[in-house]
Structures are given as structure tokens and as C-alpha cells.
Amino acid sequence: MRRPVPGPERSSDQGAGGGGAGPWHGSLRVRLSLVFGLMFFIAAAAVLAITMVLVDNSMHYSLDLVFSPGYAIDPHPAPTLQQYLARQQSGEAATKTFILGSMQRNLLFKGGLAVLAVGIVATTAGWLVAGRLVRPLSVISSHAERIAGRTLHRRIALQAPPGEVKSLADSFDSMLDRLDQAFAGQSRFISNAAHELKTPIAVSRTLVEVAMNRPTAPPEVRALGENLLAVSERHEKLIDALLTLARADDALTEQLPVDLSELAEAVVAAAGAEAARQDVTLECHLAPAPATGDPILLEQVLRNLVENAIRYNVPGGRVTVRTRGRRHSAEALVGNTGPLISEHEIPVLFAPFRRLTDRVGSARGSGLGLSIVRAVAQAHSGEATARPLPGGGIEVRVVLPTDQR
């Protein structure tokens, strides 16, 4: 089945939040934490404002009682009206205003510090709670990325209590079931059709060879037979390419340790005669590149790259084959000389049955070579890319991860 093209890796927070340019940009956990903190600060500010109003009213009431003529602040008799008026005139009103302002400022300062401290604690708690809330979404996102980039046979199978998140994971698994069945049916159809087409082609080839080998066969029949055999050979190669493509899109049958340098060495040795006929020079720079995968499919990848590089070249041209091992990947690079190719034409090269015949001046081949290369690379959780070379030709780069988890 045709695998979806894997996208760039993202962190779990990105997956939960919908992705973005940075590790926190668009993260649902960050947004939930900010919302929790903002709601707390708004609520705390409202409580502080209400407290200020209540305290202000209460203090006005208390001070009015203290400075009222009938209120005794000590066991001595209450002051007379003349004494009260004298006190008012000596600045008791200013004292009352000072007391109110001082208490309001004190309450606002200490209350603001309390709101800030508790707000920080509440936002931190919101961050932890949000992380726990979005953890199932992060699990779904990470599983979905691995499934999309590798195989549709795996399922999320989220272990969680019944709820919206559990329902989402189950719905996603149901969708994967239907997609898996559809792609498996398509793969079976291609494989069966290719096998069925091989039989009549083999019969036709046999009949043509018998007719050509008759002693009484005229030269015209022999010439026609040679043309028919060439057409049959091309059709057989096309069917073999379709079978390889169908197998590459299906699950890998073998996962064995391989070294791309050894496969490349064998492919280059086998392609030496064809390169000599095309007047193309083969150059190899092979460093150990250990990987894990299907040796037959990986050898087919390198064979397709080398054959394409020889076929779509210029007389006296050059093909360069390189392999190298990285810390977490193995790479194979095949470049060739040839006509200039624009950057926007590169995606066309990987499309099935597409060839740049107007650029390379040749319609040889089935147009499935690079399609098979990309399909096999993606089946191994890797990627295949190409870039045009400044002097003409292209370089195809196949990267395979060494960790196939």
C-alpha cells in the first residue's frame, strides 16, 4: 500500500497543540496554562477590588463612630458639642483621611503581593494540570506521526477511561482500519494483475521465438520477431517494476542488517558493462553505511539509481556513487552529469510514469525507477530526495534511519 509521506518530526507538545514554528508555539498545554493563569489573576483582581470597597466602607463606618460626639473612647464622660467642634477644627478630619489612605495603600500593596505570589503558584499548578490533561492527546499525536510515516498496520489503542479523548483515539483507529483495508486491496490488485499479465507475455514471447527459429522463416519475420521480443522485454520490465513498487508499498518482509556500501559495490560492478557501452565513467566513494531493512529492495534502490544515472547521461559523462554512515542514519548518494534541470522539475522525477524526455532526449525506461526508490525508502522509514547539480544532471540522496523503532 502507498505510504503517506512522513513529515518533519515534532515534539509531543507540538503534536498536542497543532504544531508550530517553535517547541511552545501553538502548544495546547501553554495556552491552557495561560488561560488558567489569566482567569486566576482576573478573579483575584476582582476579589481584591471588592475587598478594597468593603474595607473602605467598613473603615468609614468605624471612624465615624470613633469621632462621633456620643462615642466614648475612654471611661471619661463624652465630650460636649463645643469640644467636638473644637476637635474638628484642630484636624481630626485630616487624621481620619490619613488613616483611611494609609490602610488602603497597605491593603493594596500587601494584597497585590499576595495575588502575585498565589498567581504564580496557581499558574504553575495550571501548567502541571494542563500537561496531565493533554497527555492523551500527545500520545495520540505521537502515535499518529509514527503510523503515518511507517505503516498503517499499527493502531493507537489508547488505554484511557471512556471520554472524548478515548472516543477520538477509537475513531482514528477505525479510520486506519478502513484505510489499511483499502490500500491492502489496492496492493493485492496490482500484484495479482502484474502476475496475470506475465503469463500472456511469456506465451507471446515463446511463440515469437518459435516462429523466428524456423528454418523457413524469411528475414522479414526475423526482424519483426526481434522487434516483438524487444517490446515484450520492455513490458516484462514494466511488470517487474510494478511488482517491486507494490512490494515496497506493502509491509517489509525482512528486516536484516545490511551495509549500503556492499550493495553499492555489487551494483556498480554489475553496471560496468552498460556504463562502458554508454561511454560513461563510474566513480565510487564507498564508506561503511550500516542499516537495517530488506536487502533485495535496498539493492533494487541502488540499481535503479545507477541505471538511471547511466541511462540519462551524456557521452563522456560521469556517474558518482557515494555511501556514508551517520550517527543515526545511513546515506547513499548517486549523481550524474547531464542536461540542466530546474529545481521545479525535480518533483516530476519521482512521479510514477513520468520522464523528462524533452530534457534528456530519451524515452527509455518505464518511468517507475525513482518512484520505486522513494517508495522503498519510505517503507524503511527513510526518505529520498534529489537536487539539480550546477553543471547539469542531478544527485539523488537516500537516507535510511539506523533505528527502526
TrEMBL record:
<dbReference type="Pfam" id="PF02518">
    <property type="entry name" value="HATPase_c"/>
</dbReference>
<dbReference type="InterPro" id="IPR004358">
    <property type="entry name" value="Sig_transdc_His_kin-like_C"/>
</dbReference>
<dbReference type="InterPro" id="IPR036097">
    <property type="entry name" value="HisK_dim/P_sf"/>
</dbReference>
<feature type="domain" description="Histidine kinase">
    <location>
        <begin position="192"/>
        <end position="404"/>
    </location>
</feature>
<keyword id="KW-0418">Kinase</keyword>
<protein>
    <recommendedName>
        <fullName>histidine kinase</fullName>
        <ecNumber>2.7.13.3</ecNumber>
    </recommendedName>
</protein>
<dbReference type="Pfam" id="PF00512">
    <property type="entry name" value="HisKA"/>
</dbReference>
<dbReference type="InterPro" id="IPR003661">
    <property type="entry name" value="HisK_dim/P_dom"/>
</dbReference>
<keyword id="KW-0902">Two-component regulatory system</keyword>
<dbReference type="GO" id="GO:0000155">
    <property type="term" value="F:phosphorelay sensor kinase activity"/>
</dbReference>
<dbReference type="InterPro" id="IPR003594">
    <property type="entry name" value="HATPase_dom"/>
</dbReference>
<dbReference type="InterPro" id="IPR036890">
    <property type="entry name" value="HATPase_C_sf"/>
</dbReference>
<keyword id="KW-0472">Membrane</keyword>
<dbReference type="GO" id="GO:0005886">
    <property type="term" value="C:plasma membrane"/>
</dbReference>
<dbReference type="Pfam" id="PF00672">
    <property type="entry name" value="HAMP"/>
</dbReference>
<dbReference type="InterPro" id="IPR003660">
    <property type="entry name" value="HAMP_dom"/>
</dbReference>
<dbReference type="InterPro" id="IPR050428">
    <property type="entry name" value="TCS_sensor_his_kinase"/>
</dbReference>
<feature type="region of interest" description="Disordered">
    <location>
        <begin position="1"/>
        <end position="21"/>
    </location>
</feature>
<keyword id="KW-0808">Transferase</keyword>
<keyword id="KW-0812">Transmembrane</keyword>
<feature type="transmembrane region" description="Helical">
    <location>
        <begin position="107"/>
        <end position="130"/>
    </location>
</feature>
<keyword id="KW-1133">Transmembrane helix</keyword>
<feature type="domain" description="HAMP">
    <location>
        <begin position="131"/>
        <end position="184"/>
    </location>
</feature>
<keyword id="KW-0597">Phosphoprotein</keyword>
<feature type="transmembrane region" description="Helical">
    <location>
        <begin position="34"/>
        <end position="55"/>
    </location>
</feature>
<dbReference type="InterPro" id="IPR005467">
    <property type="entry name" value="His_kinase_dom"/>
</dbReference>
